[in-house]
Amino acid sequence: MVAGDAIPGSLTGAPGDAARGRAIVLDRQRGLCLLCHAGPFPEERFQGDLAPSLAGAGARLSEGQLRLRMVDGRRLNPDTIMPAYFSTEGLRHVGRAWQDRRLLTAEEIEDVVAFLATLRD
Amino acid sequence: MGSPRPRRGRSRWLEALACAGALLLLGAGPRSGYETMTPQLRAMQDDDLSNPGMLAVAEGEALFAREGCAGCHTAEAMRGVAARYPALDRASQAPIDLSGRIAQCREKRQQRPPLPREGPAMLALTAFVAHQSRGLPLQPDPRLAEARRQGEALFRERRGQLNLSCAQCHDDNAGRRLAGSLIPEGHPNGYPLYRLEWQALGSLQRRLRNCLVGVRSEPFPPGAPDYVALEAYLVARARGLLVETPAIRP
Ligand code: HEC
Ligand code: HEC
Ligand code: HEC
Prior knowledge:
The complex is a heterodimer. Chain A is mostly helical. Chain A has 5 helices and no strands. The longest helix of chain A is centred in the last third of the chain and has 12 residues, at about 105-115. Chain B has a single domain (about 5-250), classed as Orthogonal Bundle (Cytochrome Bc1 Complex, Chain D, domain 2), CATH 1.10.760.10. Helices cover about 45% and strands about 5% of the residues of chain B. In chain B, strands 6-5-7 form a 3-stranded mixed sheet. A two-stranded antiparallel ribbon of chain B has the order 1-2. A two-stranded antiparallel sheet of chain B has the order 3-4. In chain B, α4 packs across α5. The longest helix of chain B has 21 residues, at about 5-25. Chain B is globular and about 50 Å long. Chain B starts with a helix and ends with a strand. The interface between A and B is medium-sized, with 26 and 21 residues. One heme C (HEC) binds near residues 187, 207, 212, 214 and 234 of chain B.
């Protein structure tokens, strides 16, 4: 499913829902994105600065490129600190409650990708 | 700690901090979590009358007398002890942390029932003993090379569902913001300490458990040797920082 630096096809075969994706990105228990990233979310008080801003992500990257970065960024940068949201490969000492569970479901990944694609500037 | 003593202790302590501050300006060495706190929190830590950790220290002083510790030890003889812990336990030839030593005295030398590690009595006794070393530089026990090696391996190992190592936050990203929290260098020199988020005094093991659970990894069981190994490495990594017990942290 990986082609170059992208996963061109939807993981579910259907397009995601950008509004649901936005909620996931802002949710500190589910997406966790704002732990590390800032973005164009003026209402959110605490945003991280461990990673590039999500502003303009949809202009810099295609949906396929965004999808691979969500699924498993280690494919592009083995040392990345960004968690692989759709892979449990190589994880160690995972807490009992999280064992063998991906961070997000295929549907949720598609929702987040759809939302990131709307971040054009 | 009678009532006239804290003032003297405090000025000595402030002098020592000023020295550490001067070293920091030269860019040398590790940086205590104290240095990156707001001025309000630093003032709260510096003033014994506003530092809520001092209540636990006073409670620990009372327990030290009431629970029979003073039958074998004096408070004065406790000065410097915390600065060189964890240490090698002669009997078991294994590393032991300060609370572990206190538990050992209580259970083996006094034949009394164990105190829960995170319970208020053990925290207070540990805080009282560690407070006797406030202002002294950490001096890692040279006999703990093997534990330090294990601790460093744990520190560098990626773990949990988020697949992050301690080093990725505390070496590579210290000073940056994880959402609202400033990531400190992760030094163990203030424990037990009063954390505003906990609204209570807490141990280093509690702090480490929070970081382990934060990356969705399985924490070590309470009292596990892994914590002592991590602490042995953290203390060596923090070499030269001054004991701050009881510190304040956000
Ligand atoms: C623990 C830190 C962390 C978390 C949590 C995290 N990221 Fe990232 N992310 C990074 C870092 C660091 C990079 C930079 C690329 C690299 O490290 O290879 C990155 C890169 C990206 C990129 C590519 C940006 C670009 O312009 O090239 C996107 C898009 C992205 N992240 C989206 C997300 C989303 C959406 C979430 C949450 C669902 C998220 N990230 C969670 C750390 C994180
Ligand atoms: C019956 C005597 C006795 C009593 C009572 C006792 N201890 Fe000890 N304690 C010792 C001895 C002996 C050692 C040295 C152990 C060793 O080095 O192997 C020690 C060591 C220690 C140390 C480490 C000192 C160092 O230099 O490394 C601390 C801290 C300590 N005790 C605290 C306490 C506290 C707190 C209590 C009360 C809860 C207590 N002890 C009760 C005999 C006692
Ligand atoms: C995802 C980032 C992250 C990881 C991974 C992490 N920590 Fe932390 N750690 C923090 C943050 C943030 C704080 C400060 C908490 C606060 O102020 O809210 C902290 C605090 C600490 C402190 C307290 C420092 C002080 O000044 O009191 C220690 C010690 C520590 N961490 C050690 C560790 C160890 C050991 C590990 C690995 C087992 C680890 N951390 C993993 C983010 C992390």
